[in-house]
């Protein structure tokens, strides 16, 4: 009993150790990813956004503001256009999904009916006008004559079952059954 408890404790201690090691690895990986994202962000900003150089005169400063304002307007127009496109496509998706839901809800499978079809008619339906072979399955069957077996003769000879029961009832019937068994 104590041996099993020691094994369980060792197993749980090992599991806890493995969990803590995995968590430490995960923390270091997250820190590495964050540092890599920061470096990537700095590289992107350095490439796409040159450092701001403010001109000394008032006229040059006004021209710079006008250029920045024009860029902001163009970016804002693009943002608005993409938002409108996104709203339009989401609306279309919602409409189509609603139509799909409606169609699924309303459509019920019709009950299938059994159709009696001969083999020839079935082949004609499947193959169309190519079907030339006549499949008369009954023509290939053998003719079997029904022979009277002894059981059937016995059954016919017994006749009405009520009479048979009346004969076997009472002591005489039991005597007959006993004699017939020997």
Helix coverage percent: over 70%
Could you list the spans in which at least 5 consecutive residues all have pLDDT below 50? Answer: none
- N to C succession of SSEs: HHHHHH
| Average pLDDT rating | 79
**End-to-end Cα distance:** 73 Å
| Large-scale geometry | elongated
Strand proportion: under 5%
Counted beta strands: 0
If helices are DSSP runs of H or I spanning 4 or more residues, what is the number of helices? 6
Main β sheet profile: none
Rg (C-alpha, Å)? 48 Å
What would you call the structural class?
mainly alpha
3D architecture notes:
The chain is mainly α and 182 residues long. Among the domains are: 1-50; 51-106. The chain is built from six helices and no strands. The chain has helices at 2-48, 58-106, 119-127, 150-158, 161-168, 170-181. The longest helix has 49 residues, at 58-106. The radius of gyration is 48 Å and the shape is elongated. The two termini are 73 Å apart. The mean pLDDT is 79.
Which helices and strands appear, and what pairs or packs with what?
Blueprint (H helix, E strand, L loop, with lengths): L1 H47 L9 H49 L12 H9 L22 H9 L2 H8 L1 H12 L1
Short description:
The protein has 182 residues and is an all-alpha fold. 74% of the residues lie in helices and 0% in strands.
């Amino acid at each position: 009993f104590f041996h099993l408890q020691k094994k369980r404790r060792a197993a749980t201690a090992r599991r806890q150790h493995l969990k803590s090691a995995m968590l430490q690895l995960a923390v270091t990986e997250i820190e590495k990813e964050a540092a890599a994202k920061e470096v990537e962000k700095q590289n992107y900003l350095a490439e796409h956004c040159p450092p701001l150089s403010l001109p000394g005169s008032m006229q040059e400063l006004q021209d710079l503001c006008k250029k920045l304002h024009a860029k902001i307007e163009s970016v804002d127009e693009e943002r608005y256009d993409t938002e409108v496109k996104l709203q339009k496509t989401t609306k279309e998706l919602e409409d189509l999904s609603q139509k799909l839901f409606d169609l699924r809800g309303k459509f019920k499978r019709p009950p299938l009916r059994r159709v009696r079809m001969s083999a020839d008619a079935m082949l004609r339906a499947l193959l169309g006008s190519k079907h030339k072979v006549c499949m008369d399955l009954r023509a290939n069957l053998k003719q079997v004559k029904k022979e009277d077996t002894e059981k059937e003769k016995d059954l016919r000879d017994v006749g009405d079952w009520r009479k048979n029961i009346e004969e076997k009832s009472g002591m005489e019937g039991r005597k007959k059954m006993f004699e017939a068994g020997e």
